[in-house]
What does this fold into?
Amino acid sequence: MFPASKMKRNDIQYLYVAILIFLRFYINYKSENLKRRYIYPVLIISVSIGFYYFEDYLDKKEVNFSDPGVEASVFSFFYLPSSTTGIVVSHSHYSLSYSEKHEQPEWVAYELKKEHLSKNEFKRPFFEIDKKIRSSSADWRNYKNSGYDKGHLCPAADRRFTYKAFEETFLTSNISPQNHKFNAGIWNLLEQKTRYWATIYNNVYVITGGILETDLKTIGYEAVSVPEYFYKIILDMSSEEPKMIGFLIPHEDSDKKLSDFVVPVDRIEKLTGIDFFPKLDDVVEDRLEASSNDQEWKF
It folds into this structure.
């Protein structure tokens, strides 16, 4: 009823109070007056000790990232970035690092192949919390009447090859608050361009997210942060000469060209504290991440 993998500290406190109230009424109903004054304090102490150790268990317990439906190789995927939060989750068709502080992912990473691109039209599902995150991801209701879209980071349009893949993008661990004009405008153009590159280069690797800083504006009762910038990094390893491109875009409507937002990936790493390609050969990584040359990419 209350699996530890989904409970937050507030949930534990509410449950604790509810149990104490139940015990008080139960003892009043069942016990004789003489015994009541002894039984109730003993039960309070016992329940309090139990919850103390349960909370301690939740704090110390390592998050179980494994999923029987996902091969172990997904977790050691060559291009998986580092995590500043330690909460890395791999789903069947993308991986993410979740920030509980900001109630959204610090990055979402996935491979986009030419064969993934499809014109399938599926019924749009409801957004759901991500049950793989121990404390649960943010409730979609935080976005209601906030003035912000539930902006996909792994786009639903990139996962139309099966309904399961499409549906998986509607987890709240895969969204961030986005201004509608930004989401439907420059950000949508970048997502379309990414699919275009997957078509002509056959296979690209994508990492995307918001720049999660302190003192950001928040929305909803869980204080979901609203990033002031979003980034997207694309790696093409299809040829003997790999290439990489990074985008850093202010969270606002824009009529500028996509190429105006190209920056070295090194700059995004400094802003986020994330090592996006820790398993890439250091020489290759240094060369690719220092470059802001967009001439190798067909715009």
Observations:
- Residues 67 and 90 are 8 Å apart (CA to CA).
